[in-house]
Amino acid sequence: MMLGRAFWGGVIECARWFSSGGFTLWGLALILLALQETDSFAAGAHARTIYALPLGAILVAVGALLFLQFGRAKRALLREG
Fold it and tell me: What would you report as the CA-atom Rg of the chain, rounded to the nearest whole angstrom?
């Protein structure tokens, strides 16, 4: 029984790091891409910046929330029994 919990705890930990890291890096890349926009008068550059900044911030927040929620799920799994 304990081996099953340890296994699923490891699965949750892998999902925690890969999913939250993926969303966070994707969001940071969008934010950096939007801040890198040098020619604000280029066609469509302003629109890309307007959409990329909030979307990047949302993705970073989703990554942080996933990290916290997977941590809570792992603690709850290991606490049972």
Answer: 18
Q: Is 76 exposed, middle or buried (0-12, 13-18, 19+ CB in 10 A)?
A: exposed
pLDDT tens digits, one per residue of 58-79: 999 999 999 999 999 888 888 8
pTM, full prediction: 0.78
Tokens 């979307």: give the residue. Answer: 55
**CA atoms of 65 and 81, how far apart (whole Å):** 26
**Cα–Cα distances in angstroms (integers) from residue 71 to residues 13, 25, 27, 53, in the given order:** 8, 19, 21, 27
Tokens 């792992």 correspond to: 74
**Signed CA dihedral, 58, 61, 63, 69: sign only:** negative
